[in-house]
Structures are given as structure tokens and as C-alpha cells.
Write a structure and sequence with these properties.
31% of the residues lie in helices and 25% in strands. The chain is α+β, with helices and mostly antiparallel strands.
Length: 102
């Protein structure tokens, strides 16, 4: 990762922090024009109701719009523990409980 990737990573961290995301739970990396965000999505307050799927989805969409405002970013690859983006839609992942019979 060069200086440009480092700069984009910092801009993404500022956006996430501004939107009440705990960036210590995430790994943020940039390769060429793609931002990779991996880890657990945790909100530290603000206007986000973490128990409301609709509220979390709206915040994820807002974060994406803000990141895409940087012309250097062409794609965002999300790898979150509890959320996934499929076909342009955000979906909550099913969490498998330990010890449950399959």
C-alpha cells in the first residue's frame, strides 16, 4: 500500500468515526481503487439504533455514499461479521449459535 492507500484509509476511518462506528473493531485496507472493510460493525452511539435493522442499513448506505465521494475509490468490499451486501442490498447474516444441533 502506497501513500495514496494510506490517505484513503485515513479518510475512510474519519467517515466511519463521524458516523459513530467503532473503528477498533474493523480492519480497513485499500488496494488500488478498492477499499476493504472487514470485521465487526459496532456503533458507539449517535443516531443509530443498533437494534433496528433499518437504522443500521440506512447508516451503511450513508457511509458508502460518503466514501464514494472520493474519486479515487471505485469499489468497497465489505466483510462484516453480522452484515453482508448481496445484489446491492444489505442483509443481516444469520448467526449460528454454538452447540445447536444441525
Amino acid at each position: 500500500m502506497g501513500a495514496k492507500g494510506w490517505e484513503i484509509n485515513n479518510k475512510v476511518k474519519v467517515i466511519l468515526t463521524k458516523n459513530w462506528v467503532d473503528i477498533l473493531k474493523l480492519n480497513i485496507n485499500t488496494v488500488k481503487d478498492t477499499v476493504y472493510i472487514k470485521g465487526e460493525l459496532v456503533f458507539k452511539g449517535g443516531s443509530v439504533d443498533s437494534t433496528s435493522d433499518a437504522s443500521v442499513i440506512e447508516m451503511l448506505k450513508k457511509i458508502e455514499r460518503e466514501i464514494f465521494q472520493y474519486k479515487e475509490v471505485k469499489m468497497i468490499k465489505w466483510d462484516l461479521t453480522q452484515w453482508e451486501k448481496r445484489g446491492g442490498r444489505w442483509l443481516k447474516k444469520e448467526i449460528k449459535k454454538k452447540g445447536s444441533a444441525a
